[in-house]
Design goal:
GO terms for molecular function: oxidoreductase activity. Keywords: FAD, Flavoprotein, NADP, Oxidoreductase. With 554 residues, this protein is an alpha/beta fold. It is built from 16 helices and 22 strands. The chain folds into 2 domains: 308 residues, FAD/NAD(P)-binding domain; 222 residues, FAD/NAD(P)-binding domain (3-Layer(bba) Sandwich). 30% of the residues lie in helices and 17% in strands. The strands form 6 sheets. Strands 1, 2, 5, 6, 7, 8, 19 and 20 form an 8-stranded mixed β-sheet that branches. Strands 9-18-10-11-14 form a 5-stranded parallel β-sheet. Strands 15-16-17 form a 3-stranded antiparallel β-sheet, with no helix packed on it. Helix 14 runs parallel beside helix 16. About 4% of the residues have low confidence.
Amino acid sequence: MTQSHFDALIVGAGFSGIYQLHKLLSQGFSVKGIDAAGDVGGTWYWNRYPGAMSDTESYLYRYSWDKEDLVKYHWKDHYVKQTEVLAYLNHIVERYDLRKHMQFSTELEHAQYDEVRNVWVVECSNGQIYTTRYLITALGLLSKTNYPRIAGIETFLGEMYHTGKWPGTHDFANKRVGIIGNGSTGVQVMTAIAKQVKHLTSFQRTPQYSVPSGDGPVSKEYRDSINARWDEIWGQVRDSNVAFGFEESKIPTMSVSAEERERIFEEAWQKGNGFRFMFWTFNDVTTDEAANEEACKFIRKKIGETVKDPEKARKLQPDDFYARRPLCDAGYYEQFNRDNVDIVSLRETPIEAITETGITLSNGTKYDLDVLIFATGFDAVDGNYTRLAIKGRDGVSLRDHWAENGGPTTYLGSFVPGFPNLFMLTGPNSPFTNLPPTIETQVEFISDLIFRAEVSPKGSTASARVNGEATNGATKPSPPGPVIEALPESEQKWTQECKDLCENSLFKKTSSWIFGANIPGKTQTVMFYFGGLAAYRKVLKEVVDGGFVGFRDF
């Protein structure tokens, strides 16, 4: 076994890990990035399922900090597909010569904080051991795959896939395919493969509200208009709530006539994008039940108009709140007009068992299948942390710390008391927003925090800079170095603020992965900050301006 020491070790090579690596390298630190995958990409390395795409418009699903690259790097459609996201991340890695600082097929298995030496000792799957002053985890929100607990799942003799761990190639021609799950990935997969397969059966537990994506080719005029407004665009994104590139509505649903509501909903439907439909139309769709029902009625009507078979349409129409992660699609409902596409309501007839040849329902109906796809999502947000042995002070594991707190808790979505110099990117109770702008915000804050600790006199904030650039020719102190640790009361206060923000939200009244409801036995609790990106950035600025309040004095 070999052992190496770095100022910072970054676990994960997706959007978060790549930028954090670049940022700390630019500040003069020795940094290593590792990833369990075989190459760059993070979530986008694994999520290679048919139809996989971002539901953020292409011009925003990228980094903002290289304006030259923003102007020159081309995107052809309004939404980037999986292969294009992967190509973009590889492009950034090559542009900044980051690959030499990365090691792949290297999974963190155990991390222990050494209080005497003030280092993290990290053991990896390949037997390698690293010591690092700062351990930064960029594990992703949606990474730990979730398989449902269905009797006989291990007996199926056909092809079986999970959308989160898709093979390099597949061929579904002339095959009978069953898919369990119809969230974002399920909707995308079904839309993509319906025309390829012999027969497709959707085994649906909960009908979803989905709106058109509005995807299509980007014209030169459109791209030129974006290139002329980059500063304005990113300024608006950082000063918005969900950071999806549109102005959120300030108008209550019931403040306009029924005709005007219909017009606004129709305009949003035609423009496309689930977040736009939820937040651009009216300002109370996610907080007021009557307002929410107006949006629900509109989408249900669209489903009824689109799906010709009344029985299929009935099964596809949701009856709960429109308060899960908003979905959009490239023709999902239209696929059910195909003769080779059917839907089974698992509410009405649950799955009794998976057999060698397919699925048997509770009423005895059997479905013979050649392929079974699980679009059943992830143990989101904290799942990738609780499966790992990460131990802080006194050998206390992160899993046990969170168990004592009744669920995953942090300060600012990144810091946990008792785990010094451990920083999480998009950790529990990070903002519920478009991810790239939030990732940039957290990377820059963490980099500023490290910079302040490394180059400023203890207790001083004079040298700290919002952009994280070194000043005054300061040098790093001798080992053991600074100890950056959130205070317990800071974690408690932030957790309570996150709970308070969603107290009146309809999201809380809807069973979804956002609160951990998709995992049997998992404690359902708030796992996001619902205050919006602008408010989150304001909080971080107040933390900096106050001398990094909420942390032990370092």
